[in-house]
Amino acid sequence: MENFEKLFILFLFALIHTIVLVDANFSKSMYITWGAQHAILQGEDLQLVLDKTSGSAAETKKRFLFGTIESRIKLVPGNSAGTVTAYYLSSIGSQHDELDFEFLGNSSGQPYIVHTNIYTQGNGSREQQFYLWFDPTADFHNYTIHWNPTEIVWYIDSIPIRVFRNYENEGIAYPNKQGMKVYTSLWNADNWATRGGLVKTNWTNAPFVAKFNHFRARACKWNGAISINQCALNIAANWWTSPTYKQLGYAQLGQMNWVRNNYMIYDYCRDTKRFNGQMPPECFKAQF
């Protein structure tokens, strides 16, 4: 028995060292995918620009399976109606998984709307939207997605705003089988983004600029060969054992309830008309 335990421990150490934890900045982790004539990528900083000719975007070089993805973002100031700044994780293909932060532009003086969503196996329609409780154009704020085998948590400045828990054993799909890249983009969405497309982009205010810094992807780098269990073992053996990655504590629940009670403006789980009364099954499960 003693020899078996030693061999098992050696196996775990060997396994852990085959899985790389990525913790790098923008210039090391990302590259510009379109709108290169607009974007600036240097060191800790990424700047995306949108004008009438084009927007711009970037994505990570690697895919990840579980971890924490964070960046500080300073959104487009002034009259940004019609523009969308996106920051999200996604796999590829028709059955893709995706975890979204999207920031919907607004007319001057109106609050930004934060649009969150989750896709599992190509199925989205899980939107939750919030007004921000601060001016996101005046300074940088931290936007983080924690993703582990049991739950996904969206944070703004360390305050949780949304949780999606894993009920896969009850037939509810959960994103844990596909590696996802991190994407950022600034683009024109005036056909839907502001008041359902009623307010169009005012190009006299262009160029529109969104700024990012302090990108961190502390995650399990995934190449298709690493299994879910291997990444989960990696999480258990490393810094993911922090309470931040477990069920939210009392204080965090209080913060989240404060946001949801005061700033939530849409929750798909309350939209009975949209789903004709046939609500998604996770809406009947505890998410906090």
From TrEMBL:
Post-translational modification: Contains at least one intrachain disulfide bond essential for its enzymatic activity.
Database matches in SUPFAM superfamilies: Concanavalin A-like lectins/glucanases (SSF49899)
Coarse class of the protein's main subcellular location: secreted
EC number(s) stated in the UniProt entry for this protein: 2.4.1.207
Pfam families noted in UniProt: Glyco_hydro_16, XET_C
Localisation per UniProt entry: Secreted, Cell wall; Secreted, Extracellular space, Apoplast
Active site per UniProt: 98, 102
Coiled coil regions, renumbered to chain: none
Keywords: Apoplast, Cell wall, Cell wall biogenesis/degradation, Disulfide bond, Glycoprotein, Glycosidase, Glycosyltransferase, Hydrolase, Secreted, Signal, Transferase
Glycosites: 106
GO cellular component: apoplast
GO biological process: cell wall biogenesis; cell wall organization; xyloglucan metabolic process
Protein name: Xyloglucan endotransglucosylase/hydrolase
